Structures are given as C-alpha cells and as structure tokens.
From TrEMBL:
Entries under InterPro entries matching the protein: Alkaline_phosphatase_core_sf, OpgB/LTA_synthase_biosynth, Sulfatase_N
Subcellular location: Cell membrane
First and last residue of the signal peptide: none
Residue intervals passing through the bilayer: 38-57, 78-103, 115-137, 149-165
Broad class of where this protein is predominantly found: membrane
Membrane topology: Multi-pass membrane protein
Protein name listed in UniProt: Sulfatase-like hydrolase/transferase
Keywords in alphabetical order: Cell membrane, Membrane, Transmembrane, Transmembrane helix
Amino acid sequence: MTITAALLALARPRWLSLLVIGLCLSHATILLTRVPHWGMPFLTLAWMGLGYTFRWGSPGPASRSAPPRKWPWALLPIALWGLYLYLAQSFGIVDLSAVFFHLQAGMADHGGVSRIGAAFFYTLSMAALLVSFTWLIRHDHRWRRGEPLLALVLLVSNPLLYGMGQRGAAIVTKPGAWLERHYVEPVLLESPRDPPNLLVLYLESIERTYADRERFGDAYAILDQLGERGLVFEGIQQVDNTGWTMAGMIASQCGTPLMPAGLLHDRQFSPLDKVVPGVDCLGDLLSAQGYRLTYMGGASVNFAGKGLFYEGHGFDNVLGREELQPRLDDPEYVNNWGLYDDSLYDYSLEELRHLNAQDGPWGLVTLSLAGHAPYGYPAQACLDRQGEFDGVDILFSVECSTWLARDFLARAEAEGLLDDTLVVIASDHLTMRVSAWEQLIEGERDNTFILLGPGIPQGRQRREASMVDAFPTILEAMGFTIDWHRAGLGVSLLSDEPTLLEEHGAEFFNARMREEIVLQERLWEGLAPPSQAPEEEVIQEQVVETPEDATGEEPAQVQ
C-alpha cells in the first residue's frame, strides 16, 4: 500500500474516530497519572493497535446488531469527565468547594483570561470526542451493547459527582458535630498596654515548598534570608477548604476552613451579600480594640467576595483594582488580574505613611499577584532586575514576588514606618498547576508562615499544623491573651498546646469537614434556612455522639 493510500485509509470515519478517542484517552491518562507527556503518542498508537486488532468500528453481522439509539447513554458522563479534566489541568487539584464558593460569591472581574484559550480548545476537543464516540457506538454492535455499563462506570467514578454526592449526604443526614465542638469562640481576655501595629503580607501561591534548593534553586532564597530575622514555622499543611485565596485568608484570619454556603444558602440563585457572617475574625477583634484597618490588593475586590469579607469584618478601607488603577501614572500598566506588585507596594507604602500619621494602632493586609498560577505576573521592576521572562517559568515569578516583598519592607523600615509592628509573611495557599508542578508534588508541601517584629524570637519551629492555627498565633504574637491559646479551630503555635492536626491528623480533620455541616451552619448564620428539627432533637444532637463521631478523646474544655 502506498503512503497516499495509507493516508486515505486513515482519513476514513472509522480511523478518524478511533484517533480522536485515542488522543483524548492518552491526554487524560497523562493528566491523571505520572506518565510523562512524551508518552502520549505511544499511548495513542497502542489504542489504535487495539482498534486494528479487534476491528473496532467495523459493522458486525446484521443478526447480532441491535438498532442503534440516536444518542449514546455515555455522552453526558464523558462530557462531565471533560469538565473535570479541564479543571484538573487548570488547577492541579480540583476543589469542589472552591467551585461552589466562587459561583455564589461572584466571579466578576477575574483575571483568568489566559484560560479562555484552553477552555475553547477543550470545548472543541470534547465536541470531536462526542461525535467520534457516537459514530463508534452506531457502527460497532460490540461497543453498543457494552456502552450502558460504560456510561454507569464513567458516571460513578467521576470525582466531581462523588464529591457532590458526599456533601449532599452530609446535608441530609447531618451526622456529628466534632468540628463545632472543637470551635472556640475567639475572645481577647487581656490586651497589651501598648498594642503593636500589624502588617500582613499575603504572597500569592508562594508556598514554603519552594525553599528546597535542590528542586527550585534560589527562587525562595530571599524569604529564607528574611526568616533568619524572625520566627519561621515549617510544616503548615493545607487542609481541605483552605486551598484558594479567600479560603486561605479566612483560615488564617478566622481560624476555620471556608466551608461554602452551598446548599445551605437559602437564596440559591442570588449572590452572597455577606461572607462568613457567623464568626468573629481578626478584623472584628482588632477593630473592637481601636485599630484602623486597611486591605489592599491588586485584583478586584469584587472577585470571590473579598470586599464583602473585609468590609463585613471590621476593615475601614478596602482597596483593589477599581480604587488603585486610577492612581497609576500609566493606567495601562496592569495585568489580567490587576495591578502589578511594584505598583501595589508603592501604594501600600503611601498607606503606611497615612496610618502612621494618625493616633492609635493600625493594621494593613496586602495580597500580591506575582506568583499567581499558571505562569505568574512578574512586575517591570523584576524584569529590570532579573532579565527577560520567558512567560512560563514560575520560579522567575516566585523570585520576583519574594524580592518585591523584601524591598517593600526595607523601604518601610528605612522610613521608620514599622516601628513596634508585627510583620506576618504568609502564602494564601499552596500553588495550583504551574511549570514546576511535577517537582512540587514529589514530596510533602507546606505553606509559608513567618513572623517578624519586636519580641519575636529568631529560629524555626516544625509543627504539624494548618493555616487555621495562624489566627491564634498572630493574636498571641501581638501580645493578646486568648482562652487556652485557642481561637476558632486553631491553636497558637507559640504555645505548647497540641494542634488538632497533631492530635488527630489531617486525614481525620478533612473527613469531618466532608461529613459535617454544623460548623458550616455557624459560618453562614443568617444565610441558612432555619432548621426544621424540633428543639429537643437539636439539644440531643449537641450532647450525644454517634459511633462514627466518637474519637475517644476527652471532651474539649476550652469553651
């Protein structure tokens, strides 16, 4: 057979359909396993070889062939798997809670423009796959007979549907209240005579995992140097419902994972007008102590409820892209999300001058953008310092983020703006899929959490903890006395009290979040429909543990 004849043979619907299905299957295999990208053509060829051997797509004897249905049962399950694969490629780890929260809190003014092209490509690929699969089912009685079972397997194995089913079951059965019983209302028992100021720098996605120089070189070296001046916490894990920006900030400021309102929200098709209104957070406590509080971020405060959260929890000024972009000398010097970090830190320095010029303590929280997945947004100041950016290497952006943070602190210290100030440097969450993804997931990962300032000892502590423990740690580092060194679900890492992860482990902690909604109802108090259960049943549920809920530990005595 000549080459031309072979190409014409491959152009037939049978082989085109098998090729499309093989390419999609090999892509999914690479995405969900550790098979390297260069293995894709080999997987596709293996699929084509099976098709040739078993003559897939060739019509069988008429007597054995049932009349084909107009549409296969598996089309919807395949499409749902396509959605899951798109989310997995975009974010690395698919977090259903993040999806639910953003749908209700608002996705306007997001900066994910870079993913539009990928979404368009996925849509075309899925259309081609569905057409190819439909052709195969209609022309091969063997596939047609087994297709209903395939549809069922695809449906029940999809992590999206599994997670939704698990949460739905929790809402219906409402088992246990372990998290709620371990939640400690944050109360300031005593305050320092001269309370310090507070500066919190959230470095987008700059996890401490980057400190491994064997894997990532000097990308994180600047933060390592900064950490030598204060206290560095290692081992700060990412538990469920803390893996995106708003969730990370709420965990570290409220002491609880962000369990989205979800089906508890009694206005399912209306956007949220409050974010975790049922708990007191860092801003609430400091505002009551007379602090003047400001939040500043380069991205829009309308995205994911950032503005709602800070305005509803004690902050006087909430400044994002809409408020800061008009101040730029060049209004076009922005990225998909908003202001570059060099511009943000310039305006943050101005805010520090303004806050220091007034009486009373202050707090400033900033959120950077340079490290945002998938490639980062290095500022022009970094390009001038580090050279040309290839548009892909996330380590370039990591170094940029750390250098800009250190430069900002150096300028503020030179002006005396950080005297008597606790400085907190933290990642908002672990990074999502980036160019260094395979290296990042080789081992355990942890978040950045560094304390600098007067009275903070120098050194490193390794604790089995999570970002919920940052909340009471910050309060005690500021000199406040809190009940049993606890606030929310967190335990101060400056104390000897064991954290919930040290006592029970992350797996158990995460399992309780998947199976309980009582703490979730507390978070969204006022937004959830009133309980229909009789009062006697509610009281009994708070006292009696189910066998699944029992842990064997002594009851918490910190309430």
